[in-house]
Design brief:
Length: 222
């Protein structure tokens, strides 16, 4: 059984006719986009925006109507994955590198639903390295500042090249250990010149739909 698919398909049940939808990124969001495409083929009317070039391509393949950001003021619902979440719906996102676009889209959505398999649910965030998006300019200095913060940063690579986000930036994957105070860490990171944003999503998710290995789906609301 594919637990990501299970959660994703359940979450797509929250999509109603006429809604403006944000499409997440990653292997769980993939299943939501596929399911939404099926419902569109059956006659559901939605307009959507995508959080990455990959999700945009997939949505177009599935026949989901995409609209430019300047033609829409906000969204009704965004469905997206996460790398880690706790029961207060604090999240780590950005494993797929799309955290900045994902955060902008989530912020402008009336509701963010997180979809995940049960392995993503943790007591406290921090096992998954926190992705921090940094500008390429003087990235060595930004990396050094992160190092001084105790982040043990690793510049993300792909095929032996520095990974570049859809926004032309780099990602520093940071190991802070258990994150006791996500809000404080979020503020500290944002105050660092060279940091564009980080993968902590706090106070954004309205609910999480979790797929379990016994075939059940649970919904967490903070
Ligand atoms: O934040 C993300 C991409 O930036 C993804 O939602 C996150 O990495 C989860 O990915 P997956 O569903 O493939 O496990």
């Amino acid at each position: 059984m594919n637990l990501k698919q299970l959660a994703a398909e359940k979450a797509v049940e929250y999509v109603k006719d006429g809604m403006r939808i944000g499409l997440g990124t990653g292997s769980t969001a993939y299943w939501a986009i596929k399911k939404l495409g099926e419902r569109v083929k059956e006659g559901l009317s939605v307009q959507a925006v995508a959080t990455s070039k990959a999700s945009e391509k997939l949505a177009l393949e599935q026949g989901i109507p995409l609209i430019p950001f300047d033609r829409i003021d906000g969204l009704d619902l965004t469905i997206d994955g996460a790398d880690e979440l706790d029961r207060g719906l604090h999240l780590i996102k950005g494993g797929g590198g799309a955290l900045l676009r994902e955060k902008i889209v989530a912020y402008h959505s009336k509701e963010l639903i997180i979809i995940a398999d049960e392995s993503k649910l943790v007591d406290k965030l921090g096992s998954f390295p926190l992705p921090v998006e940094i500008v390429p300019f003087a990235n060595e200095w930004t990396m050094a500042s992160l190092q001084e913060m105790g982040a043990k940063p690793m510049l993300r690579t792909e095929d032996e090249h520095i990974y570049v986000t859809d926004n032309g930036n780099y990602i520093a994957d940071c190991r802070f250990g258990v994150i006791e105070n996500p809000k404080e860490l979020h503020q500290t990171l944002l105050a660092l010149p060279g940091v564009v944003d980080n993968g902590l999503f706090l106070g954004l998710a309205a609910r999480a739909v979790i797929g379990h290995s016994d075939g059940t789906v649970t919904v967490i609301e903070p």
